[in-house]
Each structure stands twice: as structure tokens, then as C-alpha cells.
Amino acid sequence: MKIAIDGPAGAGKSTVAKAVAQKLNLNYLDTGAMYRAAAYAMLKRGIEPSDRTAVLSALPSLSMEIVYDAGSQKVIADGEDVTPFIRTARISKGASDIAVIPEVRLKLVDLQRNAAQHYDIVMDGRDIGTYVLPDADIKFFITASPRERARRRFLELKETVPEADIDEIERDIIARDKTDSTREFAPLRQAEDAILVDTTDMNREQVIDFVSGLIAEKK
Ligand code: C5P
């Protein structure tokens, strides 16, 4: 079974995808982590993720591997486990910048399709239903208002980043959505056959129950 979960930044896709994968005993692939890892690896080499020429010349030597580890996922880029380092605002922006480059996407999409060939999988991202797995068994497009997405992110960050600012988070989210939905190649878009889930007024459990209920009906 192949399940596609797409949507804009901070909509809670990963939380839902992970929970659904656990509940239904499927593998889970967070494709955003792969774009984040690519941005991180480029920055480590001194390359700006938005510098298309430099990224293209480094791309053939970029290695990436996904390791499934007790229900969660690790991303190994250029031989390093980058998982703990890819959740910063700098890397979010870098991921969105590098994701515009079609050659980067093709390289990562290959790995994503390869994973889907080998496992029953829940995959979350921006272009899973429209481009990576157009034949997925079921597709969801999970969204919420930008303010609500910023509020959730703010609550997550507040403990560890006391200077977190909800307005700044909202601006970053809106900017990233714009880059993601206006790029030419495989932009963020709801697939025609995707089920729209607006989670603005739903809590985590309600979203998980709703999504896994629909998947169970399909099985
Ligand atoms: O989902 P996450 O916020 O971790 O994704 C980081 C960035 O990676 C997104 O803003 C988007 O630019 C890019 N991305 C993408 N296609 C995907 C997954 C993520 O372009 N399938």
C-alpha cells in the first residue's frame, strides 16, 4: 500500500504520517528531511543552496541514504547522520531553495520511488501525490491556516528557543509556501484525487483518527 500525504509547511503532515504508519504498521518516509539534508550537506561544503551552478557541480558527489530505525528515520548525507541538525530555520529556508532545482529533485525522487517499490509506505512531502507517487492508493492534502501553523510551531519551539517569535515564524512559513508553490518543477499543489484535510480546528488525535479511518476503509 502507498499513501501520499502532502501539504504546506508546518501543517502537521509528519506527525500524522508517522502516527498513521505506526498504527497501520507501514514504513514512513519524510521526504522533507531529504531536501533538508541536501541543503545541510551543501552548506557544509560552503555552497549556498540557492547557488544553482555550485549545487549542480557538487550534486553528483552528494550521497544520501535513509535508514529506518524503530519507526523513525535517519538521513545519512555524505556519510554523516545529519538528522539532529536539519530542523533549524536556516535549513528550512535552504531546503526550500535547493528544492527549486530540478536536478536535485530528480535525484531525491529516484530514492523515494525506490523506497516505495520495496515497502508499503506512507510518504509525506509537497509533490508525493502529484509527482512522486501519482498512483498512490490514497492521497491526502493536509493544511491549516498560516497563523495556526505558526502557533503550533511556536508552542513546539517555546521551551528550547525562548526568543522564538510567532510573527516571524508565520512570515517564514508564508515565504516558504510561496517558494514551494510557485516553482516550475513539481510545485506544492493538491492532487486532483487527494482528500483535503483542513486541520485548523482539529487536534492531533482527530486528524490521526480521520486519516487512519479513511485508510482502513481503503485497505
Ligand atoms: O516538509 P519539510 O518542511 O521538512 O520540507 C522542507 C522543504 O523541502 C520544503 O519547504 C520544500 O521546499 C522541500 N520539499 C519539497 N518536496 C518534498 C518535500 C519537501 O520540495 N516532497
Automatic annotation (TrEMBL):
One GO CC term, this protein: cytosol
Subcellular location as annotated: Cytoplasm
Residues holding ATP: G7, P8, A9, G10, A11, G12, K13, S14, T15
InterPro entries cross-referenced by the UniProt entry: Cytidylate_kin (IPR003136), Cytidylate_kinase_dom (IPR011994), P-loop_NTPase (IPR027417)
E.C. numbers: 2.7.4.25
Domain of life: Bacteria
SUPFAM superfamilies: P-loop containing nucleoside triphosphate hydrolases
TM spans (from-to): none
Domain spans labelled Cytidylate kinase: 3-212
Similarity comment: family membership: Belongs to the cytidylate kinase family. Type 1 subfamily.
Matches recorded under PANTHER family: CYTIDYLATE KINASE, CYTIDYLATE KINASE/PANTOATE-BETA-ALANINE LIGASE
Descriptive protein name: Cytidylate kinase
Gene: cmk
